Amino acid sequence: MVAAKSSLLSGEFVTRAQAALHNLGATDKRVIEMILSDPDAVVRGSVTELAQKAGVAQSSAVRACQRLGYRGYQDVKLTITRDLAQQDEQEQELAHEEGIDGRTPAGDILDRILRRSGRALVDAAQTVDPALLSLTIDRMAVATRVLVVGNGTSAAPAHDAAYRLSALGLVTMFPTDVMAQHLAARHLDESCVCLVISHTGASRESLRAAEAARAAGAFTVAITSFANSPLTRVVDAALIAGGPEYGFRLEAMASRLAHLGIVDALFVGIAVRSPSASTKALDVMADITVEHSL
C-alpha cells in the first residue's frame, strides 16, 4: 500500500516560500513549488533528484533554496523535516479550510480558525530578521517623531501601532488622509522614524509616504507580508511576517495578526530600553484610562 503524500500547511519553509514565491523567477519558482508539492521526497532524496524532477540544473536548485534565505539544499531538508514533525503532532488541526462547510459546528470553526491564527504568529518568528527588529527598536526609542502609515486593511494595525507608541510617550503621528500622510512624511528629518504597515507592500499611497520619508532623511521601516515588494525595496528595515492563505478568508487577515505581533514586540522592546521613562508614560496612560472608565 502506497503511503499518502504529505503536504506542508505551515511552518518555517512554507512561511518563507509564501513571502517570496510570487516574486521569484520561473526557474526558482518551479523548484520551490516542487518542494512544496512533495516535501517527503525532499526529506528522503538529494538535490540531484530534486533538480531532475523540476527540470533544472543542480546549481539552479541550490540557488532557489538560497533565494529563500537558506545556505543550501541541506538547510531546506532539515527545516522541512522539522516542519513535518511539528505538523504531525498537530494531526489534522491544520487541515485546509475546505473541511469547513455549512454543517461544521460553530465551536469547531472557532477552534480551527484560532489554531491557524496562532500558527500565523508562530510562523512570523521565522521570517522577522532579529537584527532589523533590534535596529528598529533602537531608532524608534530615540526618535523625535514617529510617523505611522497604513491604508486599507492595514489601517487598523497601523492605528494600533500609533496608539501604543503614543502610550510610551513617543511623539507619534497617524494621519488617515493620504495627502496628509505624504505631507507629514516630507516634513520628517534624520531624527525621525516612518513606520509603514502594508500587507502586500504594493499600496501606492503607502509606498509614496515611505519614499517621501526616506528622501527627507528619516529611518524607514516596513511591516509587511512579502519579502520582495516595492515597499521592501525602499525602506531601511523590512520586518516580514507573512502567513499562508486560508481558503476563502481574506489573505490579509492571518497576516494582520502577525503584524500586530510585531507591533507588540516593538512596544515591549522600546519599553525595556528606558524602563523608568516607560513606566512613567504608562502610568499616565493608566490614569487616563481610569478617567474614561465608568
TrEMBL record:
InterPro entries: Homeodomain-like_sf, HTH_RpiR, RpiR-like, RpiR-like_SIS, SIS_dom, SIS_dom_sf, WH-like_DNA-bd_sf. Pfam families: HTH_6, SIS. Residues 11-87 form the HTH rpiR-type domain. It comes from Streptomyces cuspidosporus. Keywords: DNA-binding, Transcription, Transcription regulation. It comes from the Bacteria. PANTHER family: GLUCOKINASE, HTH-TYPE TRANSCRIPTIONAL REGULATOR HEXR-RELATED. Residues 136-276 form the SIS domain. This is MurR/RpiR family transcriptional regulator. CDD domains: SIS_RpiR (cd05013).
